[in-house]
Amino acid sequence: MTASAPRIALVEDDDALRNSVVQALELEGMVVVPFASAQAALREMHADMAEIVVTDVRMPGMDGIELFARIREIDPEIPVIFTTAHGDVDMAVEAMRNGAADFFTKPYSVSRLAHSISRAFEQRALVLENRRLRQQLDNREIPGWIGVSAPAERLQHTIKEVARTNADLLLAGAPGTGKSYLARLIHENSSRKTRPLVVADPGIFANEEADLLLYGRAPSAARSRSGLVERANGGTLVLEAIEQIPEHALARLVSLLDNRSFYALGAERPQAVDIRIIATTLDLNGDGADTSIARALRSRVSGVTITLPNLVERKQDVPVFFREFLRNYEREFERETGELNEAQMQHLLTHDWPGNLRELQMYAQNFVLGLTQIATSGPVVEEHPSLRDLLAGYEKSVLEDALRQAGGSVARVQQRLDLPRKTLYDKLARYGIKPAEFRS
């Protein structure tokens, strides 16, 4: 038998008929698992099973029609083929309307039955392959994502969920936490990724021609032009720092959010647009403009709100981000950097980074340019831990976090951290870490 041989669960209460059909189908190169009753067969049914079900209609206890209904509750895409007596044809036809794959009246041709089974088996294989691919897509890491800490893991999961939808979003966070980068990641992992991502920053609204820049001028008017809203059609419009949008501009934005249409300058009719709005704000507590129209705008974009953590809350990610920034600046400036000295590494691991990613990025840029302002000479003050202690503490926390997220699975941690198995066990022993303590 080949690995792709059709597999059948044959449900038939007539012993002689069941045995003869099993033999005939096996001669056709198929794998058959026989059952004398629907109850026995049902105990072996499960979602994602590869088998095709071939069942008689008339059986004592649970009949084939009830078995079909129970199978559809388990997995509605499992193909079911009925074998019926002449008096059961109406029931079989009704079952076909409800999704059965085929039916045969007794006595039937086994070769025709085998042909129907092969066709249903191919369809089932496609269904299972599509499920497998969808599962891989659901479990994939987001391209471009950076971060290994627990907050980064939670944030990545949230991004994957919201990227599947067209819901408007509000991204909140302190300066430099990566709101603009996150908006781009969500767009690039959504169904709109092939359409434009258009950003309207506070400078647009401060411009005296803000309405023209945003909404454009109608084709019927002289010197027609498209605005940012029209250019975002089919894609995503990012409204940055909505707490800084002047009040006179808010009413038109609320109308755009409500109606997904706008009036270009000089237009007599509104123009419909298909856009997703992602707004960003520094105003974590909603203490900005408190007019009714400002509250209306905020309420419309904050149905799904993602708050980005400060870098001090995800210190495990600092070296990861730093390496990424270094690579980018090394390419940009066509320079190679050496290793960090002890003072620089100490700064990287112990600094609170109040400017968040923006401050860390500037530190990486200055490091590549040789402009870091960290003292590099003189003895290290004794009350500070040594570089070795700092690195050991960091390495221990990475291992503990990875075990916590993997539920204590050493194999998953080994894969996640890309470590040889012996090296991983040596490190766990060195730090006295016991994987069993992380298993729920």
Please explain how this structure is put together.
The protein has 440 residues and is α/β, with parallel strands linked by helices. The protein folds into 3 domains: 7-137, Response regulator (Rossmann fold, 3-Layer(aba) Sandwich), CATH 3.40.50; 150-309, 3-Layer(aba) Sandwich (Rossmann fold), CATH 3.40.50; 312-438, no CATH class. 47% of the residues lie in helices and 11% in strands. The chain has helices at residues 15-27, 38-42, 64-74, 89-97, 110-139, 150-163, 179-188, 202-206, 210-215, 228-231, 247-259, 292-301, 318-333, 342-350, 356-369, 387-405, 410-417, 421-430; strands spanning 7-11, 31-35, 52-56, 80-84, 102-105, 169-172, 197-200, 236-239, 261-262, 271-272, 276-281, 304-307. It has a 5-stranded parallel beta sheet, sandwiched between helices. β9 and β10 form a beta hairpin. α6 packs across α7 (179-188), α13 packs across α15 and α14 (342-350) packs parallel to α16. The longest helix has 30 residues, at 110-139. It is flat, with a radius of gyration of 32 Å.
Q: Overall pLDDT, averaged?
A: 84
Distance between the termini: 42 Å
For the largest beta-sheet, the strand count, sense and barrel status come to:
5 strands, parallel
CATH architectural label of the largest domain: 3-Layer(aba) Sandwich
Topology as a string of helices (H) and strands (E): EHEHEHEHEHHEHEHHHEHEEEHEHHHHHH
Beta-strand percentage range: 5-15%
- Radius of gyration, in Å, reads 32 Å
| Continuous helix count | 18
The helix content is 40-55%
- What is the fourth-level CATH superfamily of the largest domain? P-loop containing nucleotide triphosphate hydrolases
| CATH topology type of the largest domain | Rossmann fold
Poorly predicted runs? 375-384
Please list the strands of the largest sheet in the order they lie side by side: 2-1-3-4-5
Structural class: alpha/beta
